[in-house]
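REQUEST
  id: r-88c1
  op: predict_structure
  target: tRNA-specific adenosine deaminase
  payload:
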Amino acid sequence: MRTALSEAAAAGAAGDVPIGAVITTADGTLLAVGRNEREHAHDPTAHAEIVALRAAAAVTGQWNLTGTSLYVTVEPCAMCAGALVQARVRTLVYGCREPKSGAAGSLWDLLTDPRIHHRVEVIGGVLADEAATLMREFFAARRR
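RESPONSE
  id: r-88c1
  status: 200
  body:
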């Protein structure tokens, strides 16, 4: 999660919402990193999770990321939660909750819904204060 926080800080410094993500293999080896790049890439889908998933797929040469874990600083939105399901990610670990768009328990719970063909284990609240501080400081600076 510390690496994801570093990616988040880099995203914020580049003018994007400070969210960072990392993907690890089943044995904990770092596979890929991502950070929000929507502003930089002019791409509405360039969320940290999607960027990390694309990088992991490129490294492995396959879309199926069974057994991997994704660490992200902020609870994923519906798009990103859906992508985790489609990629067959085993575990999601996130920092702070996102009450306005969170799809891992806050607003929706897409990842553990029994109607979906693949369920993702969800662990929330890891280094939540640090992740929330990055978000608060970023948006406070933008409002000034």
